[in-house]
Amino acid sequence: MQADGHTISEGLCVGLLARCADGKFLSFAEEIVRFVRAGPGMSIAVYSGLMKVYAYSGMYSKACDLYDQIRKDGLEPDTMMYGCLMKFSVECGRTQLSQELSEKLSVLDIQNYMSLIKAAGRDRDVDRAFSIIQRLRENNVKPDAIAFNCVLDVCVKAGDLGRARKLVQEMKELGLLDIITYNTLLKGYCTKSDLKGAKELLSEMAAAGFEPNDVSYNCILNTAVNNGSFEEAWDTIAKMEQMNVPPDHYTVSIMLKALKRAKGQKDVNRCLNFLDRSHIDPCSDEILMNTVLETYIRHKEFRRLESLLAKFEQSNLRPSVPTYGSIIKAYANLKCPEKCWHYWNEMQGQRGLEPNDIVYGCMLDALVCNGQVDEAVQLFEKSNLKPNAVLCSILVKGFTNTGQSQRAMDLWHDMRRRGVRMNTAACNAFVDAQARVGNMEDVLEIVKAMDADNCQPDGITHSTIVKGYSVRGDLDKAMEVLRGMQESGVYHDAIVYNTILDGCTKHKRSDLVDQILQSMEEHRIVPTNFTLGILVKFYSRQKQLDKAFAAMSSLPKRGNFVPNCQVWSCLMGACLMNGSPAKALQVFRDMRQAGQSADTRACTSLVSGLVRMGQMREAVQVVEEVYGFHGKGMKNNGVAIEQDCLESLLAALAQKGLREELAAPLLERLRAAKVQITGKLMAATLAEERSPERATTRQFKGGYREGCRS
Questions:
Q1: What is the rounded average pLDDT of the residues 160-167?
Q2: pTM over 0.85
Q3: In a domain, 362, yes or no
Q4: CA-CA distances (angstroms) from residue 452 to 259, 448, 548?
Q5: Does residue 338 sit within a domain?
Q6: Is the distance from CB of 206 to CB of 212 less than 8 angstroms?
Q7: Is residue 288 exposed (0-12), middle (13-18) or buried (19+ Cβ within 10 Å)?
Q8: CATH number for the domain that contains residue 549
Q9: Backbone dihedral region of 481: left (phi > 0), alpha (psi from -120 to 50 degrees) or beta?
Q10: In total, how many domains does the chain have?
């Protein structure tokens, strides 16, 4: 417009600022203000438009900062602007400013008084709130129910339920009670975690003719959740449904908050089902949107997460800076770094919003978790952010995950030179980067610096040092650190013992295994599935299969745990490695009987091992059980046998002269079960003769691998 010679009036600028407020377009709003400053100069109308933009963006402190600029420009706010500034100063906690602004007005209206009462609430000043009511009366302004309810809220925030009750009685005598009065008093009982008193007040409300609404029930619900009374919370939900009180976004947010203490998938499903049947759109409320995103991420509900993000992209929700952080975090979990960049650029470029340290952390973590470590470093260096422990920890995690221990150490030295103060968690991240590759000299340098900075090493620090010595193969040093932890009472659990046991497995230190197990028992350390898996692997490599079975029998009882499918698969692989196909087959069946299901990799390993050992009929039986050909298998659980393994089996059957008896019928059953049949499978079945060595040694890609990780 300027290039075409059009005149841009103040009215147009004010109108554009109003549109910027609706869309929260900070960058455009500030560009308009720069134009006005350079031209005709600022006016109260333009300042009012900019103030509205900041307020709509939740930036109340910046809106208040405009007051000093207005006065510096020699302008005087009008009555409406003073009222807005009083309101905004309360919102951002600048209560002293709200009182100063009130003195600028010759006459206060009821809204101005309300702002002053709310400011008293911010300061938990009950006496000041009551004095404002008195000022109203002295100025011949009759306080209404709204003003009284506002003072009641101050009493509740200050925890003064005695004065709150007296005020409610006064309101009752004046005929000013309403549902808001009762809900505010209800909040007071709930703040004190007094569920009994809160429920009695609900009955009192109903008796007075005020039926509890969604706000009432949400108070009870929130208290029940905070108290850990989840059944009480669900009883409240049932009561709402019984009384035909529909849930709102607060109801849903409270129940999702309860999932932070959830003990199992059943609780998660129950809450998510409630979200579904509430028919509340998470994109309709920014706080709820953040809560739902966080819930889906925490519980790895990635299908739901993907669906919600797709709905968000079609919605009119204009995210604030914290919500951009949640969205970036969500797309990072879905492995969509390009989407993370899109919203990062939208936030800064299109919206002109400045990310805070938390959102920077979300973006750095998104890049690191998606393998873009160099991009994360570049973003960190370009940001001109003051380095802190959290941001450094994120970068170190990236270096650790990509095996760049030297870059991690370079970052450590750089942060030391710049005087960045580290916390224990950050130091542990640096220690871990070096311990994983056995760089114990660097580990000890970091630990020494922790002591010098009064940064106390904790159980994780010591456990990571143990890991470093174990990786390096210096198991005696690892044991020395462990003994030091035991003697000094530093907290530690099975992880540190598992680490040393794994080191014994990798470095063939059989002399320490029994000693470690005995130490666990003496210090009442509960073994875990990881402990059992490591022992099974160790005994397998030592050709001590009986000890592996003995551990499988005894450790779950000691640790009160159920062996998981990884441990079962590890034991099955141990049998195959030790030339005991019959035992491997029995483990496979025992595993199913125990309610565990072998995965595709384990089933493929078993079939491949049986073929390698000439156990053709048994291999066919396993395939039939996996695909459920006889009605008792593992059908529909997503488990399959890899194609290369099936090809090897069919080729071996044909070579052994079992084409008609076993190979062809098996192929037909696979076809009937809608298993993908390739040309290679067909060719393998039709093959009549082939080298015995080739037929019996062809295995799935990669050969047999142990099914348990340490």
A1: 94
A2: no
A3: no
A4: 41, 6, 46
A5: no
A6: yes
A7: buried
A8: 1.25.40.10
A9: alpha
A10: 2
Range 446-471 average pLDDT: 92
642 in a domain, yes or no? Answer: yes
Burial class (CB in 10 A: 0-12, 13-18, 19+), 440: middle
Torsion sign over Cα 326, 327, 331, 336: negative
Structural domain of 218: 211-280
Is residue 245 in a domain? yes
Q: What SS3 state is found at 438? A: coil
Q: Which residues contact 710 (CB under 8 A, 6 or more apart)?
A: 498, 501, 502, 505, 530, 533, 534, 537
**Identity of the amino acid at 348:** Q
Using H for helix, E for strand and C for coil, what is the string for 169-214? HHHHHHCCCCHHHHHHHHHHHHHCCCHHHHHHHHHHHHHCCCCCCH
From 289, 339, 281, select the one nearest 318 (Cα to Cα).
289
Residues 242, 246, 249: CA angle, nearest 5 degrees: 140
Cα torsion 598, 601, 604, 610: sign: negative
pLDDT tens figures, 25-62: 888 999 999 999 998 899 999 999 999 999 998 899 99
Choosing from 250, 280, 310, the residue where a domain stops is 280
Locate 345 and state its tokens: 């650029």
Place of tokens 């306080």: 143
Six token digits for residue 215: 């706000």
Which residue, of 221, 256, 280, is where some domain finishes? 280
For the residues 173-182, what does the mean pLDDT come to? 94
